[in-house]
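Team,

Forwarding the record for the chain on the shared tracking sheet. I've put the sequence and predicted structure together so nobody has to dig through attachments.
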Amino acid sequence: MLHGSYDSWLVALSIGLAMVGAYASPDPVRRVTARRVTAARDEEARFRMMAEAIPQIVWTALPEHGVDFCNQRWYQLTGFTEKQTLGWGWCNGLHPDDRPVALQNWEKAQHSGEPFETEYRLWNAAGGYRWHLARATPVRDSAGVIRKWFGACTDIDELVCHQQALEEQVKGHTAEMMEANSRLQSEMRERALTQQELNRQNERMVRELTQRSDRATNLAKMAELLQSSSDLQDAFSVVAGMAPKIFPELRCALLLFNASHEKLEVLPIWESCGLPADGFGPQDCRALRTGRVHSVAPGEHAAECGHTQAFSRHAYCCMPLQAHGEAIGVLHFQMIEPGELPQTVMALASMFAEQLSLSVANIRLREALRDQAIRDPLTGLYNRRYMEEMLERETLRAVRAEQGLGVLMLDLDHFKNFNDTFGHDAGDTVLREAAAFLLKSVRAEDIVCRFGGEEFIVILPVADLKVTQARAERIRSRVRELPVLHQGKSLGMVTVSVGVAELPQHGTSRKELIEAADAALYRAKREGRDRVAIAEPAPPADPNPSAAAMGKS
């Protein structure tokens, strides 16, 4: 909405500059031009009024001439005057370390004509610098020439500080892993020296020490592979492949808590341990109840764990897996043959459990960091940046495979009324409920994103226009039945307007599809809301661009 008004203001302003003196002329053409000048000035005034109403920094810039307008938020934040700001003076408000990169990105955007986005630290008149995210979009005239740039700066200092704190935690965990590996290497050297000494005594001791060395080597190799694992499934494959080499005399199973932390689920298993296939609760394992290793000798029924009572015939041991002081699962070992659990094997199993705990914790931390980077914190949906990446990928794939690709752009009707009537908390509730509804209303392969404000985008791979339109109508009709409660009170009926676009009918690029769906959405709004509008077909490509160019010349 703002972009359209701003574009109109630029066009009107350019007309005004070309028609100076029109008020003094009796020429009817000049009188019309004068009225256009007045309209352009009114449009500019409205733009500036809207810019002052926005809590972020809003600015405009002329190509090659720098900034020509900033709203009052800039001057309040930086303490700069207009003279210190306009043109290229705004650069002095950037942190010296960030200024070269910011200017380089700005120069690149002006040359390419693509939207500008960068992060930098901005001077705060209250003292110090704060991180900001700057975005700018080119405003073009009817000939496609960039006449101005419209931009905004958003304070992201708290987000950056939080991310830096998480990175420090990752560094700390990495240091702990390196220390554990160092201890392991030291122990391996000690065992190697012991092996050399015992070799002079008898072959039996040589075989025993050789086996110990092999175990430690495989454990170290497993540690390296775990460090390079990209996700938990990759790590579990490493454990299932390496553990039988480290513990050939044992059966073993790895169990981790589910998302609700109410149940342990069986993951990698080598040599079946006879555990319940659907897992068991933490109260059934004595190791988890006590927080310590729990070993049971053959025939020792009094101290058995609840999860093994129907299956145990040999000695077994449960080792709790802990990370950051919290239990995350348990390792269950059983002897394959009758006999006691060797102490040397149990010592190695303890290191095995420690290494596995650290690896699982680190992988979960990395996944949490990535999830924060691609998820909208309010709704839990994918954010706009992730949507653009996925739509670019799906568009290229659909073009290569000559398949359809559907795009829905949805907007909650009269959303401002929820905020004005019930408060912003109620508005947040509406957004969360709408997001949950959308997730339940799409296929597993569909991608649901929060585009911004009360707008959502749904990407439907391998979907033609008929399927996409049907999905849009189904969502539109069922969202009316969505019960939204806040503090025990109904917020009333929620409706949506939907714009539908499909590849290739409405475009073959990410930008074309979004613009087509957006235009259809606004048409649905204009026609009365609570409806689905199909995008206009994309104009056909010129089959002979060279001839067309000659004709224009």
